[in-house]
Amino acid sequence: MKRLIGSSSIILAVFFFYGCASTPAVTYGDPGQVETVTTEFGSTDLQTIAEKMVNSLLATPVLSSGERPVLYVHKVKNMTDEHIDTKSVTDKIRTTLLKSGKVRFTAVNEVNDEIIKQLEYQTKSGIVDPSTAKSVGHQVGADYFLFGELSSIKKSSGRVKDVYFKFTMNLVNIKTGLIEWADEKEIRKQAKKALIGG
């Protein structure tokens, strides 16, 4: 019986040890900390692109005139071979620009169906008090729209891997069709495999 209990204790200890060893230790980190886990597009790349675009845009006469133009954001084209959520990049740019108080954004491209449904509900359902119902024909049209592209070039030689990213953004005057502003951010990342185990 003692031998059985001793064997069971050893087996439980082994399961406990391997169970603990396979569970990763999770900690919180600083979102602004430089992330260099891999050469793939990461959080630091997103943040540096957004910062460059916002600072450049805020310096343009279009946004520094004090008129608070209305902007529309078009989806950024991902021309890389990675799966990159480019909406996260434009969301970061839009949020920072809105906080500046120098620009407004139309939500039509993201929630147009919901806006139309809400307008129809308020004006046609007969359920909403007519004095509070919002009527059609009052949405503010965008003055400009932002569009961009993210591309990359990847090269490897021996143990070295080099990745180059280029993010380009343009601001177009909807009335005239003219590009009023354009800028780009370049990022280069390199990784070198270890001699042993690489």
Gist?
The protein has 198 residues and is α/β, with parallel strands linked by helices.
Report, as a whole number of angstroms, the end-to-end distance: 50 Å
> Beta-strand percentage?
25-35%
Q: What coarse outline follows from CA principal-axis ratios?
A: extended
What is the annotated CATH architecture of the largest domain?
3-Layer(aba) Sandwich
Tell me the radius of gyration: 26 Å
Order of helices and strands: HHHEEHEHEEE
Reported by name, the CATH topology of the largest domain is: Rossmann fold
Fourth-tier CATH superfamily name of the largest domain: ABC-type transport auxiliary lipoprotein component
Would you state the CATH class of the largest domain? Alpha Beta
Main sheet makeup: 6 strands, mixed
Structural class: alpha/beta
Question: How many individual domains?
Answer: 2
Helix content: 25-40%
Give the tally of β-strands.
6
Low-confidence stretches: none
The tally of helices reads 5
The residue-averaged pLDDT reads 84
